[in-house]
Specification:
Number of helices of chain A: 19
Largest sheet of chain B: none
Number of domains of chain A: 1
CATH class of chain B: Mainly Alpha
Structural class of chain B: mainly alpha
Helix content of chain A: over 70%
Radius of gyration of chain B: 19 Å
Number of domains of chain B: 1
Strand content of chain A: under 5%
Strand content of chain B: under 5%
Number of strands of chain B: 0
Oligomer: heterodimer
Strand order of the largest sheet of chain A: 1-2
Largest interface: A-B, 36 and 38 residues
Structural class of chain A: mainly alpha
Shape of chain A: globular
CATH topology of chain B: Helix Hairpins
Chain lengths: 463, 116
């Protein structure tokens, strides 16, 4: 079997992104097919790396000619491989929806490739500072994408995102500084080896700084106030992309810190608390919304909270549940953002729009046989076996609230929009996403096996 | 380690971080918020550089004449962080321009950025 160095997953789209203006000078029409080609190439690389990791274990790659812990290390673990494949598989599908658009902006395509590359970078890096740099690339790219609509709401959302993102990055730096000050290393595995020599209070402080900072991208309380405004202001395509790439990379980073850096001293309790807060606030706020994009954005916040709750259970089954929830959220939320641009009850007449939307909603609220069901089911089973009845009750209440506002949306539509209709390319994208949801839901065993490997590896403090 | 020497630096950087956070959370004027972000970044950067300080050390350039160096890693980190900070500030100003062109004001409506 061919093996591919993981660095290509980052280097290729970065290189091609900055080549895009040249392509644009030669032929304006070529930019969209060119971007799609680059994204599909990355999908191919990610699939090969995923297969290599599932058969041969973790892939390490040392960069820049220095040996770790001084040099930068890339490490593609099981979870990293699953998420790299998820991000790189879904990003071309969402990009397909751009083909029917009359607008043809080379900047949009560049930023799209850039954010895909850097989100992938977050999930495959083995170095804390490297992760920070990828976070910043993701964030700056996303600011640009959000502002690209150039309306008042877009600028407002983007500005809020920039401010909270910068505050978050300052917190990440403080966390990195705390860890570096005690351990003099930035390599995750080196940190994991020597974390016990760090005083518990300093460890907890570093974790609080890092979880607050990364929580901006991962849409975790308290710095997630940008989410509804930015999603409302950005185009439906950008909202769809943000919910599949950067947010998944962010929650991965939190999981990575949770299991590698802070194995004891209140880290899991803190994460559980933040997760529950995010879940409950997000779902309750979603219930009040009249505007569809804001509702979906708050629902996103709730879902990310649920994923964090699953990670903070610190058990194998809940970890598998978190992976299913991430897959469900990435596919279903990007589908809903794309499909609901002009959703009224009237658009139900078109089965290529209504059926995918129904599938997406069913997966989000956790109905069988979709990935969201498997995620919630595994989580419930695990929490019941550990006896966390209060948390189960809260999660079920949140799920009921979720079901209520999604049902209201399905049966009443949103009623405020002028109907421009949905383009053929958008329809193609949502049909593919719905098919993927059905496939993962019907054959969960193909995700389950690598997910269990990921859980064993992460719970042991490994990659 | 003579951290006593560094105490003024820690106080200054913590104060800068606190002022920056306060400004971001309480102001509604976009330019004031961007300035506060700059203060916040500066505070964090000073703190990190100070962490790599070794009393009596020189710049981390190896030439055989000196044996005591500053820790080069925090300096490299801060260099990266400064570049990122500058580009984010530029982007924030660009967005502020766009906001001003659309609305004719540089005041955020509602209660500033912390509003849900």
């Amino acid at each position: 079997m061919v093996s591919i160095p993981p660095v290509l997953l980052i280097a290729f789209p970065l290189f091609f992104a900055f080549l895009a203006p040249l392509i644009n000078m030669v032929s304006k029409k070529a930019v969209k097919p060119y971007t799609l080609f680059v994204l599909l190439l990355n999908t191919l690389f990610a699939s090969i790396i995923f297969l290599n990791v599932s058969s041969g274990g973790v892939i390490y790659e040392q960069l820049s000619g220095f040996y770790p812990p001084i040099g930068i290390l890339l490490s593609v673990g099981y979870l990293g491989a699953i998420l790299a494949l998820l991000i790189n598989l879904l990003s071309p599908i969402v990009y397909i929806s751009y083909f029917g658009d009359a607008k043809n902006s080379v900047k949009f395509s560049m930023l799209y490739m850039l954010v895909t590359a850097s989100s992938t970078g977050i999930v495959i890096t083995g170095d804390l500072f490297n992760m920070f740099v990828f976070f910043e690339i993701t964030a700056v790219g996303s600011y640009g994408l959000v502002a690209s609509m150039r309306t008042k709401k877009a600028f407002e959302g983007a500005f809020k995102y920039i401010v909270l993102g910068s505050v978050g990055s300052a917190f990440i730096l403080l966390g990195i500084a705390t860890i570096y000050g005690y351990l003099k290393t930035l390599n995750f595995y080196d940190i994991a080896l020597r974390i016990s020599s760090m005083p518990p209070t300093a460890r907890l402080m570093a974790f609080i700084f890092l979880i607050i900072g990364i929580g901006v991208e991962a849409e975790i309380f308290p710095l997630n106030g940008w989410v509804p405004d930015a999603y409302e202001g950005s185009s439906h395509r950008v909202a769809s992309f943000l919910s599949l790439g950067p947010s998944k990379a962010g929650i991965y980073a939190i999981a990575r810190l949770l299991f590698t850096l802070i194995p004891i001293m209140g880290g899991f309790e803190l994460a559980l608390l933040l997760g529950l807060l995010t879940l409950i606030i997000g779902e309750l706020a979603a219930l009040k919304q009249k505007e569809i994009k804001r509702m979906l954005a708050y629902s996103s916040i709730g879902q990310m909270g649920l994923i964090l709750v699953a990670f903070s259970m610190d058990s194998r089954m809940a970890f598998v549940a978190a992976i299913f929830l991430m897959i469900s959220h990435a596919m279903a939320k990007s589908l809903l953002f794309l499909g609901t641009r002009n959703y009224t009850v009237g658009s139900l007449k078109n089965p290529f729009v209504s059926v995918p939307i129904f599938i997406g909603v069913l997966s989000i609220i956790g109905m069988p046989p979709f990935p969201g069901f498997w995620g919630k089911w595994y989580l419930m089973v695990d929490m019941a076996s550990q006896g966390f009845w209060t948390i189960i009750l809260l999660v079920i209440l949140a799920a009921i609230v979720e079901a209520v506002y999604y049902a209201r949306f399905l049966f009443k539509g949103t009623g405020t929009e002028k109907s421009e209709g949905i383009s053929k390319s958008e329809m193609t994208a949502i049909v593919i996403l719905a098919l993927l949801l059905v496939l993962v839901g019907l054959f969960p065993q193909y995700i389950y096996a690598p997910a269990v490997n990921a859980a064993s590896s992460f719970l042991g403090g490994g990659p | 380690m003579t951290y006593e020497l560094l105490e003024p630096i820690f106080i200054i950087s913590t104060a800068l971080i606190a002022i920056g956070l306060y400004g971001v959370m309480s102001k509604k004027n976009i330019l004031k918020i961007i300035l506060s972000l700059g203060l916040l970044d500066t505070g964090v950067n000073i703190l990190i550089v100070a962490m790599g300080y070794i009393p009596g050390g020189t710049a981390p350039i190896e030439n055989g004449n000196y044996s005591l160096y500053m820790d080069p890693v925090p300096q490299a980190l801060v260099l990266t962080a400064i570049v990122i900070g500058v580009s984010v500030t530029a982007l924030a100003l660009a967005v502020a321009m766009g906001y001003y062109k659309k609305t004719g004001t540089i005041e955020l409506d509602k209660e500033g950025v912390m509003k849900w």
